[in-house]
């Protein structure tokens, strides 16, 4: 089977992008050919993958997205595929991997009626409706129990088209037998003393992940403790705003930025606490990665995977709605708590018993089932599209 995957942008340190790659590799392992349509591909290309770079045209995000869709289907007309799997919302998909939350819900929460008059809203609303609308045929792979009823409340999406997937945590995030040795070498490399505290934030999109909240929380710590606190931030984003903010708050010496890295497991072992005060987060894969690594977690309750922290008893989840003063108090409490070894041990036990690794396998199963249930008479004939998403 020739599979076409569509993702606006691939880089190796994005959560959605890593999920796409793992699903594609699982499908390839089963004998299927993989073609990926994208505006850009950063990093190594897996052997056997066909990468089709779509020209970037348009001034606005919605203009670029619309051109991507038009170009994609024009290319598919000449180079048919048996199934189109999308990782961004767009019309014409056979299967959609729902890494992002509900756009309509966010607009309803954050914006007024005037926002709905703009072309940006009309575009993204139409593209979301093209996937989740009751008239759509797209099969949807859901990864968030929280988001499923939200989408259904706006679009009345039939239950039969919504398929829940378990998390897909890579097992290399689990604490290895030599975790103590890795931790010791890591802290020596970065000059973190035994009586100092290393906080960790992981994820591209620093604003969404709540880096501003973290900087304010560090500032709130007692001076003696603050001098012993370091914050390492891993991810790809613009730094200028947060560098200026950290300096104005007087915590710039506590902060170190790292671009996306492929040695995240070392950071998970070397740190004392993962903080994730996100403004919104469909899932939050890094929360589970920290739990199975034995790293205690402090996370805002809005995150889709926050409930795993509670189930594992591997940290603390902040109440909804988010309150900065609660975050600051709980950060102080966790840094000074004697429960850190217990949280670590609980996370390691959870890593052994929980079904949190099999997402790519289940996703590939559903992709294959979608094709077998709707086998076309000739290759590529299933794929039709209205690029306006209507």
Protein described:
The protein has 390 residues and is α/β, with parallel strands linked by helices. It has 2 domains: 2-166 and 358-373, Glycogen Phosphorylase B (Rossmann fold, 3-Layer(aba) Sandwich), CATH 3.40.50; 171-353, Rossmann fold (3-Layer(aba) Sandwich), CATH 3.40.50.2000. Helix content is 43%, strand content 15%. The chain is built from 16 helices and 15 strands. It has helices at residues 15-29, 61-78, 103-110, 119-132, 147-155, 179-189, 206-209, 211-220, 223-226, 240-249, 264-270, 285-293, 306-312, 324-336, 340-353, 359-373; strands at 2-6, 9-10, 33-38, 40-41, 50-53, 83-86, 95-98, 139-142, 162-164, 197-202, 229-234, 255-258, 273-276, 297-299, 315-317. The strands form 3 sheets. Strands 5-3-1-6-7-8-9 form a 7-stranded parallel sheet, covered by helices on one side. It is globular. Residues 378-384 have low confidence and may be disordered.
DSSP E strands, number: 15
- Gap from first CA to last CA: 29 Å
Quaternary organization: single chain
Rounded mean pLDDT score:
94
Helical proportion?
40-55%
Fraction of residues in β-strands: 15-25%
Q: What radius of gyration results from the CA coordinates?
A: 22 Å
Largest pleated sheet = 7 strands, parallel
Number of domain modules: 2
Instruction: Tell me the strand order in the biggest sheet.
Output: 5-3-1-6-7-8-9
Contiguous runs where pLDDT drops below 50 for at least 5 residues: 378-384
What's the architecture of the largest domain, going by CATH? Answer: 3-Layer(aba) Sandwich
Q: Tell me, briefly, the overall form.
A: globular
Q: Any idea of the CATH topology of the largest domain?
A: Rossmann fold
Number of helices: 16
Secondary structure category: alpha/beta
- Class of the largest domain, according to the CATH hierarchy? Alpha Beta
CATH homologous superfamily grouping of the largest domain? Glycogen Phosphorylase B
